[in-house]
Specification:
Order of helices and strands: HHHHHHHHHHHH
Number of strands: 0
Largest sheet: none
Shape: elongated
Distance between the termini: 13 Å
Length: 216
């Protein structure tokens, strides 16, 4: 799961010399998360946040990590509240903006999602995943002319990513450039054999447009 990789990468807490901090429960939360026990991870991160005497930096990291777990669980409102806290404590926290953008997108609050992905790109101009996520969001907004450059930039930074090829195929499909969409989906399937065939994915694109699939 792509989200899990993001969380594990962000489970890094700084040791502060300014105040005593207890990161034990945060470490337990990381272990529970890697074991796939999301409820335990939330409980442990919550204890760490409430009782660990954390610095603003570490409280922001813990809140971000808990938010990503809520995102995995589908509790988008709670995820956004936690991402809000992480960003309030650290406005330049790109991972938190990225996560909040995904939560907004899943709530179909597309304009807010775009704003967060914009921030990530300003903070890190070579974030392939932020360009990819903004590309997909523009597609969901039926704005393929804006989606396509973002997917192209994501592929320039990270060539051959099957998820980005899929997102670009959606943009091409919306533009009725079906042959280009098919080529991208064929390439995605060559890279990842679990990817759907282009016929299956075209059907899903249509279902997304009709509102029968969420398009997450």
């Amino acid at each position: 799961m792509r989200l899990l990789a993001v969380i594990v990468a962000s489970l890094i807490f700084a040791v502060s010399s300014a105040k005593a901090e207890n990161l034990e429960d945060c470490a337990k939360g990381a272990a529970s998360l890697e074991a796939g026990n999301h409820d335990a991870a939330i409980d442990e991160l919550t204890r760490c946040m409430e009782l660990g005497g954390l610095s603003d930096r570490n409280l922001s990291a813990a809140s971000n990590n808990r938010a990503f777990i809520y995102l995995i669980k589908g509790d988008y409102d709670q995820a956004i509240r936690d991402f809000d806290m992480a960003i309030r404590l650290n406005p330049f926290f790109a991972q938190a903006h990225y996560g909040r953008g995904n939560a907004y997108r899943r709530k179909k609050a597309y304009d807010q999602a775009i704003q967060d992905f914009d921030v990530v790109i300003r903070l890190n101009s070579v974030s392939a995943r932020a360009y990819r996520s903004r590309c997909w969001t523009y597609g969901l907004m039926r704005r393929p002319d804006q989606a396509l450059p973002d997917c192209n930039e994501s592929l320039r930074i990270n060539p051959g990513n099957p998820n980005t090829l899929d997102s670009r195929a959606f943009a091409y499909w919306l533009l009725e450039e079906h042959e280009k969409a098919r080529q991208d989906l064929d390439q995605a399937r060559e890279i990842d054999s679990s990817h759907l065939t282009w016929q299956e994915r075209f059907h899903e694109f249509e279902e997304i447009i009709l509102g029968r699939l969420p398009g997450e």
